[in-house]
Amino acid sequence: MTNNDLLTRRVEKVLPSPQGLEKLMGERKVKLYQGFDPTGSRLHLGHSVGIRKLMAFANAGHDVTFLFGTGTVLVGDPSQRNTARKLITQEEIDENIKGWKRQVSPLVNWDKITIKQNGDWLIPLTLRDIIHIASNISAVQLFKREMFQRRLEQGNTVWYHETMYPLLQGYDSVVMDVDLEIGGTDQEFNMLIGRELMRKMKGKEKYVLTTPMILGTDGNQMSKSTGNCVWLDDSETDMFGKLMSVPDKQIVPYLANVTDVPMGKVNEVKDGLKAGSVHPMDAKKMLALEVVRQFHGEAKAIDAQKEFEETFQKGGAPESVETYEAKNRTVNLIDVLAETGVAKSKSDARRLLEQSALEWNGEKVLATELEVGTGGTLRVGKHRFLRIVMSS
């Protein structure tokens, strides 16, 4: 991959200028990193954009560090949040890191990158150290942050420890003496604080590269709270099905940012969709096959496509479906969905029913009580199925 490709694909901005970073990369290998706060146990496809960018730099011979925020996670990144994050325990941090490593392994060559934890230098900081770091950034600058201002306008609280987060993240750059930091567009403020700290504390230039944030399967910001995520640990069938449901306008951004399809081919698809010579369904199949292949392998990706075509395009049901044995001919769907885990909770099951998201043997279900007769298949939304049979 050329320097030009490194600075264009999966890139939103390069600050202060892409020309300066390209010049530096032409002179020597650069030292760069991205920080990952292990706040949850699962990663979604949006997280893979930055990881792919990091590996592109590593494959080009640059010095790449994956930084786990074992220190910053104690504060909790306030980016894109209207309330403060809950404090996390060390046990949760350790478990999350193990899970993250497992989930990103299909994308990462661990021999080409370095892993560090910022708790190694942040937790031992003394009061004198913290005061020294903070003296380089004005309080007004921190409170001007758009997200803090939005909270205040809504009458919500900005807690003091949250204002420390950009300082602590910024200090990572100083400690590791990097040339470049990579992060999503939501991290731009934090990364620029690090750039300022680097300039004031070390007299050194630091570049900032932001990666695009892809949207979820419903066209809104990908978030676990909205249920619109494609998770990296999804089964091959779930992953394929979810990708087939993304809005048509997201096909090209997904191809460009979460696959390794050459950009020439991506642009062909883009032009074909615009001209009508490429059908969105065919483009989504290519997208889904590429992503599932990366995480589950060629054979499972092909099987997932076949199952999708049989299930969703021909109106069938998957061969492997969880079975619920009913004790009576009439069941309460709310209880069944919650008990089997097909719905996350009874309230989630009620929402599915109210949204007409349930079908019994191909017919819409409108009532809580369902007469199962000799049995059949319950379709839940677009991708989930439950076979209900009478117990013997």
What labels describe this entry?
392 residues, alpha/beta, Rossmann fold, Tyrosyl-Transfer RNA Synthetase, Structural Genomics Hypothetical 15.5 Kd Protein In mrcA-pckA Intergenic Region, Chain A, 3 domains, 5-stranded mixed beta sheet, 18 helices, 15% strand, EC 6.1.1.1
Task: Kindly provide the name of the CATH class of the largest domain.
Answer: Alpha Beta
Number of strands: 13
Q: What's the alpha carbon Rg, rounded to whole Å?
A: 24 Å
CATH domain fold name of the largest domain: Rossmann fold
Share of helix among residues? 40-55%
Domain module count: 3
Q: Please outline the major beta sheet.
A: 6 strands, mixed
Across the major sheet, the strand order is: 1-6-5-2-3-4
What is the CATH-assigned architecture of the largest domain? 3-Layer(aba) Sandwich
Mean pLDDT: 88
Ends: how far apart?
Answer: 61 Å
CATH H-level homologous superfamily name of the largest domain = HUPs
The computed structural class is alpha/beta
Proportion of residues in extended strands: 5-15%
Shape: globular
Q: How many distinct helices?
A: 18
Unreliable parts: 80-85
Pfam family, one: SYY_C-terminal
Family: Belongs to the class-I aminoacyl-tRNA synthetase family.
Domain Tyrosine--tRNA ligase SYY-like C-terminal: 319-373
GO molecular function: ATP binding; RNA binding; tyrosine-tRNA ligase activity
List the helices and strands and how they pair.
Elements: H1 3-6, E1 13-15, H2 18-27, E2 31-36, H3 47-59, E3 63-68, H4 90-104, E4 113-117, H5 119-122, H6 127-134, H7 139-143, H8 146-153, H9 160-163, H10 165-176, E5 180-184, H11 188-202, E6 207-211, H12 236-244, H13 251-258, H14 263-275, H15 280-296, H16 298-313, E7 323-326, E8 330-332, H17 333-340, H18 346-354, E9 358-360, E10 363-364, E11 369-371, E12 376-380, E13 384-390
Parallel strand pairs: 2-3, 2-5, 3-4, 5-6, 7-13
Antiparallel strand pairs: 1-6, 8-11, 9-10, 9-12, 12-13
Helix pairs in contact: 10-11, 12-15, 12-16, 13-14, 13-15, 15-16, 17-18
